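Q: Is it fine to ask for two folds in a single conversation?
A: Yes, each is treated on its own. Send the first.
Q: Here.
A: Result:
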Amino acid sequence: MKKMLEIIIDGYGENLLKSAGFNNVMTFCCVLSYGNIKCLTDYKIKILKNVTIPVNSEIEKLKSIKETQIRIWYSSLDNEDMCSLYFLISYFCNKNIDIFICDIANKDHFSFSSYTSSEIKELSKNTILLDNNEKINYKKIWDDLVKENNDLRVLNYGKLMSFSFDYLDSMIINFIKIEKKIEYLELVGKCISEKLCGFYIDLIFMERIDELISKGIIKVINKDEKYKYLMINAVE
């Protein structure tokens, strides 16, 4: 029986997968839903809110794979999971590798880490094997997204589409308009809990909020480093 490599995009779920009995696990994280994705072809690092994302080392991990069967665990409700899914299928499309995928999303669960190990075993029954035509279709969609290389890749009615930062920024601004005044970290938490535009990475929201502050669209009314309160600038 061939040994299968389990690839997971949600790094928090690695130990969960292993506790469920799946020991041959690799995590993959390049934050492909946000910002420039030309870094994938250039094999360069990516910077998000002053945090270095080592795209080059993530690609090197893929190059080192020896297995001829892989299973990609993903959530069809999550931008980042879907972007990574499309990229990984595109990357392995023309290689002699069987690609299995397993969607973990349902109405009660948004991310992998919200499950228990026993539930993960049940989820594995959702695994499907992609045929060549399916792999080619995934690759074509990803290639188109790379050509567009827009600011964001966002799920829109189940389809990954390119958007500018304005799309996410407008929703963040609306949160502040509703609250009138809100603490910086509370706003970040609210964006995450609401899964705004299908994102849940705190650094993404922090970078957008900081950009809106620098443009004068969001006004800081208390510059205390611990409790930074925000409101929409009257000139917005």
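Q: Second one now.
A: Result:
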Amino acid sequence: MKTWHPLLSFSVDLSNSTHLKSVIDRIAGRNRKRANDLLFNYFKQLLQVESDLYSGCLNKGIPLEGLYLVKSIGDELWYVYELPTSMPEGERNARVVDMLDVLFDVVSHGKEVFVSEREIQFLEEEVKGPEMWKDTPHQRVALPIKLHIDLIRDYTSFNHLRHEPILKVLDQHYGNVSIDERWERLKRDLPTLSQSLNLSPTINEDKRSIMFQSRVDPIGLDVDLFFRCCKFALPGIVSIGQHLFCEIFKNTAGTECSVAIAHDTHTTFRHYNFIEKQVSSKELKGIDKDYSIYRLLTYCYEPQLAFSGTDKNVDGCQATREMLLDAGFIQVIDQSVRYKICSDHWTKFGKP
């Protein structure tokens, strides 16, 4: 029987993306080529998030072999990272903290897309200067990153059975044909269908056999709980679910927590700020218990201190800023337009 290792599960989401698409639709209008070019610029930002994650893992010495992209749904990426049960606690904590460092860095590099009615050449902007924008509709849209992470233990996976329905249906569709004819048709149809149905078949001609590679796709109550909590993630902040927080952060007091990590032969402590949010079972819709998520605060960057982008009506970090204001981590200094960091909250553990 397969051993299911604990999973470090995290969702990465570019917020404000629907607003961006509305801006593209308004500015590009009926020029579909321009709209597609702008959407491609947006997609490149999503690819950059993946690149930041992979390069960050390699730079931290985190093996990519344990990292799985389970699903990519529009603007959201769902990853899991396997934590072998044989890994000692200190080493496991070190791996988790290293991954958190990578994710903090990913979130701190919020993305943005500049939307203009037409493509502007560099020399044109150099020659005409700011005057050129008077006749060219344009807008800069910030895309702060939301990220939620938690530990998933209660799960299983039946993804290795996903090929059975299509094989059964194809067999019925082929009807009363010879074994040789059935095999030829399967060789013809499966490679085409594998792209659209995500089946990943490997055909062995000599043995007349088909092997299906199944991707990681966990199912269970912990998975449902994870996604219920994702909607409470805030732009520019890494939020951590209660399972993971209680597993690795043993020492907490007020809004401060620490974790013991072991690298080689020595043990050190890492310190963090956090703000707890209690989520009721009613808000979790179908989960029959309350649950907490913890917003870890290791930095404060520009979009959290001022309106992001040029559109004052769509502020991607407004909810984040309101949380930081309520908790006393930032203060108003300019009639709710600009803010400053409260050093007594941040300097002890964070790095503003």
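Q: Anything structural to flag on that second result?
A: Two points. The longest helix spans residues 32-59. DSSP finds twelve helices and 15 strands in the chain.
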